[in-house]
Batch of 4 targets.
Target 1
Amino acid sequence: EAGVTQSPTHLIKTRGQQVTLRCSPISGHTSVYWYQQALGLGLQFLLWYDEGEERNRGNFPPRFSGRQFPNYSSELNVNALELEDSALYLCASSILAGGGSEQYFGPGTRLTVT
Amino acid sequence: KNEVEQSPQNLTAQEGEFITINCSYSVGISALHWLQQHPGGGIVSLFMLSSGKKKHGRLIATINIQEKHSSLHITASHPRDSAVYICAVNFGNEKLTFGTGTRLTIIP
């Protein structure tokens, strides 16, 4: 069974640009979660999508947004990139909705903003 | 406030030693997760607990709901166990709150 996949693996962008990160969940999983791990900081919850709807979001500005497609894959968009957006962005999926279900993580996308 | 605290922050041990990593949280939870993150960033979910104890190979996770505390134990530690171990808690608001992680180094 294929795991959670993310693309791209690495990305370098310039401040002010926009970026789109992609995530494909494990087959049969309907929930997708996005997390940010900035250098030297812990993991922080960004967004949760389930059945195509945004169910919850963390304490991030509106320039962080995303969507979930009918096939349950998801995109994370970040507009007007700032230097502090440099981080590892992790996607996870679960078969059941919410944090009470085991989450399976993808390998992450490392974003560098210069 | 929903908080998760892990200890120790860093742990260095000799191969073969018994390892314990602790996680405490502030209020009632619906589930607690233990995650392992290797250099390079990949994260593996080790356990999800809501009560009692779970075992997988040399790893054991326990949770005490009354004391709001969980421990991750590694028996017969090996250098390949070297990683960051992260406790994450669902406080019932359907998103995970993470501890700061414990960096474990096992010396051969």
Target 2
Amino acid sequence: ILNVEQSPQSLHVQEGDSTNFTCSFPSSNFYALHWYRWETAKSPEALFVMTLNGDEKKKGRISATLNTKEGYSYLYIKGSQPEDSATYLCAFLSGGSYIPTFGRGTSLIVHP
Amino acid sequence: EAQVTQNPRYLITVTGKKLTVTCSQNMNHEYMSWYRQDPGLGLRQIYYSMNVEVTDKGDVPEGYKVSRKEKRNFPLILESPSPNQTSLYFCASSPGTYNEQFFGPGTRLTVL
């Protein structure tokens, strides 16, 4: 089983703060990295699918970058709002394997 | 509305009593999979299916069976449930193996 690490495990910020967290994955045999947002009592929803080294994706105030050579991806939230409170998951897919490896997630709580 | 549905949403059962959790998607997706979520761990894939009559083991298949007789349905079968299968289960579908996944609402299973 591949090692996918997310840090920090949890994060408390104030409304309006910008924040970022990390997903680390094996740097060899990379195929794709997915980011999901998982709100309490709901199911995970996809944010980004990233496939190329140097990829940058943006959706509103949330953006993500990808470095496949060193094996990490950053997720940034600009001007956090209470509705951004959720667990953010990354999932690593390697070439030739159809089984995504999920990290344990970063739990973000944004205080009003 | 495009969606993945699961039933039941909650289930309490006893050791050894066979049960089935149904999963259905209306997006004509080829790829479907089952995950379990346990405290402190990332989502772990149980089984996946790349198309009708094509299924394969994920990372934690022991104690589970699946079938894919129709494209839209992918039931999860526990022939003889045990307490260590108490977990939160998610079904997911996607257009292809490496695409973003669409998750069902989850099934919380307790085996006494």
Target 3
Amino acid sequence: RKEVEQDPGPFNVPEGATVAFNCTYSNSASQSFFWYRQDCRKEPKLLMSVYSSGNEDGRFTAQLNRASQYISLLIRDSKLSDSATYLCVVNIHTAGGTSYGKLTFGQGTILTVHP
Amino acid sequence: GAGVSQSPSNKVTEKGKDVELRCDPISGHTALYWYRQSLGQGLEFLIYFQGNSAPDKSGLPSDRFSAERTGGSVSTLTIQRTQQEDSAVYLCASSSYSSGEQFFGPGTRLTVL
């Protein structure tokens, strides 16, 4: 089983739509959670961190369910510029400490927003 | 300020040759990471440097891969006796502390013929 799993999509949605991505992680020692965005042939960039209480940044809402080891990202009022691959990312902190900071990436979910 | 830079941006090499990929992290960032991304795949962790601690090499796929970080700044990833399956984009990232946001460089696209 992969450490971080995402639905690869692709998701094709019209402008203005609401779309949700889900992600599950297998290691309960996971400490920090993020959504990164990667445009075609570009490097990943941090979209937002995910906090236990859930957090919102404009049109983007992230949720974390530690009991179910599940993370979600909701995008409201989709824009053409939201088209990208969305990467679910987990920081797994091992007892030895040497892996602290190592990020584990999901395969990514491809989103295409069309006019 | 300057972001993470990597060189070369593209590298084409023949099977069996050695290659060196360079990463210049953001000034002052103590943590540095190498990942690789194969076509259509997610990012695969390779190695992680944090300050003066021993690096976490748990992601290196074989002993043909090695990395150094000199003076706590610039890092070099070396792949010896390259194979076609080494073809990928090699991404470097740095962060100001081990659990902080990681800033990625533009990557080096390696093609092994």
Target 4
Amino acid sequence: ELKVEQNPLFLSMQEGKNYTIYCNYSTTSDRLYWYRQDPGKSLESLFVLLSNGAVKQEGRLMASLDTKARLSTLHITAAVHDLSATYFCAVEQGGSEKLVFGKGTKLTVNP
Amino acid sequence: DVKVTQSSRYLVKRTGEKVFLECVQDMDHENMFWYRQDPGLGLRLIYFSYDVKMKEKGDIPEGYSVSREKKERFSLILESASTNQTSMYLCASSPPGLAGVYEQYFGPGTRLTVT
């Protein structure tokens, strides 16, 4: 059974600082997705990582995938308040159409 | 842009009522999903459908059923609502997996309260 673990689950950081969110998963997969959810809103796709070594960047967020270690990271550079949200990673289950989601990391960026 | 819509943003129902949650997508996606989201538990898959009239149970199907009579519409049915079904319900759709990519697109969610 595929399990996806994120850590930390809660992250409070100051503006201007850097930090990394980790996403570990338990079985082989080449596909990993990152989503963002603002309070009271739905999930918005951030990144799709399709192979080992994949790296995607948008603004202050950079995601990477190491399929051998079964690990993805979401790195935040020089955080700003607008990045406050909950971030989810999701992994494809056995090449099927289904995704298994982590529990989410609630990020709060304080001025 | 992919658009996934859900029939209600907020819904209040009484225990024992039959509840219908509707989801419509406009991108001709084969796959559609229903999740519930609860604090501390993340997203849990209730049911998914990979074609019209086809469905598969997810991780927590008990107390729920689904219907997909048309490709664009996927309905979640709570046969007899109970208070432990109070939750945020999210619908999603995904294309048939171009190059093995099953990125899911989410609707705005329905916050259901069962009293």
